[in-house]
Amino acid sequence: MLFKLSNTNQLFLIFILFSILLSVVHNIIEDTFFQNSAKKVALDNAIKKTAEREGVFQNFIYSSEQTLKALRENESFINYLNTQTNEDEIQRWFLSFSQSHVNFMQLRYIDKNGL
Hints:
Blueprint: H1 7-72, H2 75-83, H3 87-100
């Protein structure tokens, strides 16, 4: 025995089936396109942050190189290397120099003997 549906019930059943089909298609499309898009955005963001941090690091390295060149060419330090006198003055100079550069915790001169 077949159950006969009225036009209203048929329309309601079609509406429900169409809604389910539309939901399934929407979920498939969202998973396919937007999930990959979110991954791409996250990857792009990670690449930008990496490039930014690399720039900060390169700037720090360049600044440190310039600081060491300035120290190497300082006349008081050159005189100290040649005569080994005025050690207190050089220590005060190193201390003030390291305090004026926030990235330095300490500044040391180690000679060829490791002292």
